[in-house]
Design a protein that fits this description.
The complex is a heterodimer of chains A (335) and B (522). Chain A is mostly helical and 335 residues long. The chains are: A mainly alpha (335), B alpha+beta (522).
Chain lengths: 335, 522
């Protein structure tokens, strides 16, 4: 156990270092002038030089990285050029917005996708299977940008079934003190249920769009895993022994695909946490995808590196969680 | 058995979905409130709302409503200057004396005094702001500022110009600098920053609005200033929503969830033209599109080649097709619609004329050249159109696109051959653009200079007779339309979609001409 823990720590540290080094170096190599991004393009040479030195750009790149790393380890990710805020403050605001969408989409995608995948597998070759296969293929293949636009056009603009873009109505702005950064949790903590439900209504369409992608992937993989199990001898044995079909499916077959499913769901969650920037743009959702993308376009490397570190560490965290869940599912993995 | 499981599962899903929709979905509340103006635009470029530091246009529009200036553009006649926080001013050679209004207060309730005016401008230099160079051209520095800008009393500010430039130019420059409540800003100062950190997200002005919320890349909410000298604005709050996608802006405009959509494209404007609930407001901006020729790359330094290129641009063809609604043909460095503009467009698309000019200059076989442009639409489309028309005389263009932050440094370092570029004035005076193209910074990008023209630009800047100065600028613009390595093609146009009940929304060509406080709703 101790060696596993040590291995985990080493893995975390190496991942963190790798992330920061690669992103930092790439940022410095990019043909974007961070000085002009701050002072504009008309500043005098003296002002340019002063800012160049202030940003530490006159130092060797290893020195720059070392300074940055020591600052980060003290919780200082630097300041964003775009927002003029500390990057950590920005991340605290933008990341929960993406976390909300990613979490809800993964949960709904799993709750719907897994049963659909199982249904398709046990009805292999029948109309249910064909429907699920075609539906999930379409759902997985459709460009998210297009789907988001169509969803907004149909359900918001034409049918009026949902509210428009944005995270919350203006009327509710500032009513809830941001504690966790998640409007749902913060509103619930303060008992502001009007705010909660308004935020929920705004999340419906973007979550539905991202759920389509998550659901399609999870359903297809579930179907595939279950089909592999269908032809196993233990399934025949269980049926011959007279077990009810639902017991055969859920208590025996499904248990054997759980580990694979956890991997698939973990990967889906991680990819959604990157921030689906196109969905965020369409729905004017202030998430980390837009934040990192805008930062990149503006040469705001502090923000890009900070955002990349957060997303990267989420990947690592999800992998660790997946490993832990494997151990819960299958005691042999623990050993 | 399997069928039973299947039926149950599908039935369960259908019921769950229906329940979920009932619980979550709410009917859309169309139409914004009667005293609330909701604007949708991309605010991704706003980095600060400190009026002494901001240098980009989107932020400037907001600041124009949070802070008053000494003088301002008349909302009813944008080409005219009228007093702002000053009640009147007098010009005596290089000296301008401003009389402030008695009893004027900031939104905080603090009285607006001469020291606030002086401090607001001084901090621009002390902070080494990106806009400091504009004040420095008047011979001011942190060392001499308090000698040259003085307050004989609390209601009077005198400014002595310490360079060749004239008072007329200074007045136009001052429309760009908001007056800050020194007492409030300094109460929130940290580490000698003159309130910069606090002002990035808060306001301390006397304008028609004060800032309630600014969330970068998300939202700006401003509330009407009850202390505003012209009275509280009809729109009690102005909400600017960050909505980067024009299609989303259009949908929310049609639904009535916003009042004004700023970034609609030409085809979207056409699509909403027949909508009985909407109006389209077309406003020429002060930004121009031009080609920058790096004269260090042969044969771009040849005036004949420069002339030929002027005839190879299908101005009307592009403007009538994929650029429809986004540009107006304009071939001068100072945009039309303002004081001293030159509206002559002497060039048209003439391949045969270009061919003859090139042949006479010894370039009958054409040449190859890189064409650098922005990656966002419609610039690649413009590049492709030019590639086609240039090819007719044997000039082969290799199109290289890049995002703005990569494209601009390339130009600044003269790393381009032919490049598409944009330019907008730093302040509302033709000197801003003309000086930029003739003296600095653009000539350096093109490896070009013309000392004779520089003298003429300087002469116009120091001219005190307004009528003479105006004519000098018009003549200069005509002169700059030939034998120069910059070829102005278009003036950019903004098209705003608005709800029909929105009236009196004032949006001039420059950011300092955007006024929310006159807007009403029927």
């Amino acid at each position: 156990m101790n060696s596993r823990f040590v291995g985990l720590i080493i893995s975390l540290v190496l991942t963190f270092l790798g992330l920061t080094i690669v992103t930092f170096v790439l940022g410095r190599l990019m043909p974007v002038d961070p000085v002009s991004a701050i002072i504009g393009t008309r500043a005098s040479h003296a002002v340019y030089e002063a800012m160049y030195i202030k940003l530490g750009l006159d130092q060797p790149i290893l020195t720059q990285y070392w300074i940055y790393l020591t600052d980060v380890l003290h919780g200082d990710f630097g300041k964003s050029i775009m927002t003029a805020n500390p990057v950590l403050k920005d991340l605290w605001r933008f990341f929960p917005a993406t976390l909300e969408l990613a979490t809800l989409s993964t949960v709904f995608g799993t709750l719907i996708g897994v049963p659909l995948g199982v249904l398709a597998a046990i009805n292999s070759g029948r109309w249910v299977d064909h429907l699920v296969r075609i539906g999930t293929l379409v759902g997985y293949s459709l460009p998210t940008f297009w789907l988001a636009m169509i969803a907004l056009l149909i359900f918001y603009a034409q049918l009026g079934w949902t509210v428009g873009p944005g995270r919350i109505d203006f009327t509710y702005e500032g009513l809830v003190t941001p504690v966790t950064g998640s409007i749902f949790i913060d509103a619930a903590l303060e008992g502001e249920w009007d705010v909660f439900w308004n935020a929920a209504s705004h999340a419906v369409l973007p979550v539905a769009v991202l759920t389509t992608y998550a659901l399609a992937y999870v359903a297809r993989m579930t179907r595939s895993f279950m089909l592999d199990q269908l032809h196993e001898e233990y399934v025949l044995t269980a049926r011959v022994k007279g077990l009810k079909e639902r017991v055969v499916i859920w208590r025996h077959m499904f248990k054997n695909v759980l580990i694979q499913l956890v991997t698939v769901i973990g990967l889906t969650y991680a990819s959604l946490l990157e921030g689906s920037v196109l969905t965020e743009i369409i729905f004017s959702w202030p998430g980390i995808g837009q934040y990192i993308t805008n930062s990149l376009f503006n040469g705001d490397m502090n923000a890009v590196v900070g955002g990349t570190v957060v997303v990267g560490m989420c990947f690592v965290g999800i992998n660790i969680l997946s490993d832990f869940i494997y151990g819960l599912i299958d005691p042999r993995v623990r050993d | 058995m399997t069928k039973k499981i299947t039926r149950r599962a599908l039935g369960g899903m259908a019921v769950s979905a229906a329940l979920l929709m009932q619980v979550i979905a709410t009917p859309v509340a169309a139409e914004t409130q009667a005293d609330q103006l909701v604007i949708a635009k991309s605010i991704a470029n706003i980095a600060t709302l400190d009026p002494g530091v901001n240098y980009e246009f989107v932020g400037m529009e907001i600041l124009n409503n949070l802070y008053e200036r000494l003088v301002m553009n008349d909302p009813q006649n944008l080409s005219k200057l009228i007093p702002g926080v000053s009640e009147s001013y007098t010009i005596d050679g290089k000296m301008i004396t401003f009389k402030l209004r008695d009893g004027q207060v900031f939104a905080s309730g603090n009285p607006l005094k001469a020291e606030d005016v002086i401090w607001s401008l001084e901090r621009v230099l002390q902070l080494e702001s990106p806009t400091a160079f504009i004040l420095e051209q008047f011979g001011w520095s942190t060392e001499n500022f308090r000698e040259k800008i003085t307050a004989p009393d609390d209601m009077t500010v005198t400014m002595e110009i310490n360079s060749d430039l004239g008072a007329g130019l200074l007045l136009n420059v001052l429309t760009s600098y908001g007056i800050v409540d020194k007492e409030l800003a300094m109460a929130n100062e940290a580490d000698g920053d003159f309130g910069n950190n606090w002002l990035q997200g808060n306001s301390a002005g006397s304008g028609p609005y004060s800032l309630r919320i600014w969330r970068a890349n998300e939202l700006i909410i401003m509330d009407a200033n009850k202390n505003y000298r012209l009275g509280e604005a009809p729109m009690k709050s102005v909400i600017t929503r960050h909505m980067p996608e024009p299609a989303t802006q259009r949908l929310t405009l049609e639904k009535g969830d916003i009042d004004i959509a700023i970034n609609l494209t030409g085809d979207q404007i056409e699509a909403i033209s027949d909508n009985a609930d909407l109006n389209v407001l077309t406003v020429p901006t002060a930004r121009i599109l031009y080609l920058s020729l790096n004269t260090a790359i042969e044969p771009l330094g040849d005036p004949a080649v420069q002339e030929a290129i002027r005839y190879l641009i299908n101005y009307k063809g592009m403007a009538d097709s994929f650029l429809r609604g986004q540009v107006e043909i304009h071939q001068s460095v100072w945009p039309k619609g303002g004081w001293a503009s030159n509206e002559a467009n002497p060039y048209s698309y003439d391949v045969e004329k270009a061919r003859k000019i090139l042949a006479d200059a010894g370039h009958a076989d054409g040449f190859e050249m890189e064409f650098h442009t922005f990656s966002d639409s419609p610039y690649p489309e413009i590049a492709q159109a030019l590639q086609e028309s240039f090819s007719q005389v044997g000039i082969t263009l290799e199109i290289i696109t890049a995002e703005g932050r990569v494209h601009w440094p390339k130009l600044q370092k003269a790393g381009h051959q032919i490049a598409q570029a944009r330019w907008g004035p730093d302040y509302n005076d033709p000197h801003s653009n003309i000086d930029g193209f003739v003296r600095a910074p653009l000539p350096r990008e093109m490896n070009w200079s013309n000392p004779e023209l520089e003298k003429k630009v300087k002469a116009a800047a120091v001219e005190t007779d307004l009528a003479v100065r105006e004519q000098m600028y018009v003549d200069l613009q005509k002169e700059l339309q030939s034998d120069t390595p910059f070829i102005v093609m278009y003036q950019l146009v903004n098209n705003f979609g608005m709800r029909k009940n929105v009236e009196n929304y004032i949006n001039g060509p420059v950011a300092t001409m955007v006024y929310y406080n006159y807007t009403t709703k029927k």
